[in-house]
Amino acid sequence: MISTKAMVLRVSDLAEDGVHIETLEEPEWLVNLPELWSGSGVLTLLSKIGIDLQVTKVLKEVSVIGNVRLSIQSPCSRCVEPVKIELNPEVSLVLSPGDKIGGQDLSLDHETYQGEEVDLSNYIREQVAISLPVKVVCSEDCKGLCATCGTNLNKDSCDCEKDQVDPRFAILKDLKI
Ligand SMILES: [Zn+2]
Ligand SMILES: [Zn+2]
Question: Using CA atoms in the order 17, 121, 25, 11, what is the torsion angle rounded to 10 degrees?
């Protein structure tokens, strides 16, 4: 296994024809995954993180193109059943020396680096974070849980009065969202 050091590049050592980085990181590499996620519920990493990048240099600009593979699991936001999700975020970055480009016109795919060394790890983590689903559902037509008795309505039915609405939520029912 190649260590995380593989993602630290010395720009001056990069040949014009670049370097190919292929590595499989342990789940610990994304130990901050829960913080990266803006969704609700628990997010679990099910696999190692496969990283495949082609790095090239044009003058002082470093271009990084490739993809990341990982699978995660999170409970369905409606029925709470675990849902397995394969993620395959693409990486397409251009890194410029930090002193050359000033603030505003930096887009998501255009980052800067300071000094001679570039640690790609944080950029890659960022791409993973962006690819995370905001809301996890097991299927678009998941019926969820009965609000009254908690029955999983995908698997079973119940006799609860479906029109019974908690008075606290009744007002929401009339709102057009
Ligand atoms: Zn569901
Ligand atoms: Zn019920």
Answer: 30
What separation in Å is there between the alpha carbon of 85 and the centre of ligand 2?
29
Task: Tell me how long the chain is.
Answer: 177
| Ligand 1 centroid – CA 33 distance (Å) | 22
As a whole number, mean pLDDT of residues 158-165 equals: 74
Rounded distance, CA 128 to CA 122, Å?
A: 10
Provide the 8-state DSSP code for 8: E
Output the CA 80–ligand 1 centroid distance in Å. Answer: 6
Amino acid at 113: Y
Higher pLDDT, 170 or 71: 71
Span 125-131, average pLDDT: 90
Nearest ligand, CA 139: 1
- Identify whether the C-beta of residue 129 lies closer than 8 Å to the C-beta of residue 39: no
Mapped onto helix, strand or coil, the DSSP state of residue 171 is: helix
E strands within 14-98?
A: 19-25, 44-45, 49-58, 61-75, 82-87, 90-97
Please give the residue that has the higher pLDDT: either 91 or 16: 91
How many whole angstroms separate alpha carbon 48 and alpha carbon 126?
17
Sequence ranges of the domains in the chain: 4-142, 143-177
Residue 45 CA, ligand 1 centroid: distance in Å: 19
